[in-house]
UniProtKB/TrEMBL annotation:
This is Membrane-bound metal-dependent hydrolase. Pfam families: YdjM. It comes from Rhodnius prolixus. InterPro entries: YdjM (IPR016956), YdjM-like (IPR007404).
């Protein structure tokens, strides 16, 4: 999936998570915090791809991760989701930067997970059980064949 598709899917996922009240924090949270948090992290799993939008801007981080884990490796797994949640909910960022509202953090988690779910919709799938190499997919999108269809699908999800 392309960066544009991930942005649209993250927006749809943030709206969906808030409306479904997936957690008490999301239910009571500020729409702006949840949506912006989701959009900010929706490209993070592709840090393992130096040619991705995020990878091009953070090559110093992207290249080593790509060499060690490959694209759609650890960053697209339950292990990475758990690590991301642990890091975000630890309060580490709040201690070194600024206080981050908890609804913003929940939005960030939704954004990260939305990326993994969106990549599951492509034929390549994702290794949810990494380091096990099994790939999980529900191949309904093929961005290489129909790049516009990806955006139409993501917009329809909205």
């Amino acid at each position: 999936m392309t960066a544009g598709g991930h942005f649209i899917f993250a927006l749809a996922s943030a709206i969906f998570a808030k409306k479904l009240e997936l957690s008490p924090v999301l239910a009571q949270g500020n729409w702006g915090h949840i949506i912006i948090g989701g959009i900010l992290t929706c490209l993070l799993p592709d840090i393992d791809h130096p040619k991705s939008l995020l990878g091009q801007r953070l090559k110093w981080l992207s290249i080593p991760i790509a060499k060690v884990f490959g694209h759609r490796g650890i960053t697209h797994s339950f292990l990475a989701i758990a690590g991301c949640c642990t890091f975000l909910f630890s309060g580490f960022l709040s201690r070194i930067i600024i206080s981050i509202p908890i609804d913003f953090v929940h939005g960030m988690v939704v954004g990260y997970i939305s990326h993994v779910v969106a990549d599951m919709l492509t034929p390549a799938g994702v290794p949810l059980l990494w380091p096990c190499r099994w790939r999980f997919c529900i191949p309904i999108l093929s961005p290489s064949k129909y790049p516009l269809w990806e955006r139409v699908f993501c917009a329809f999800v909205l």
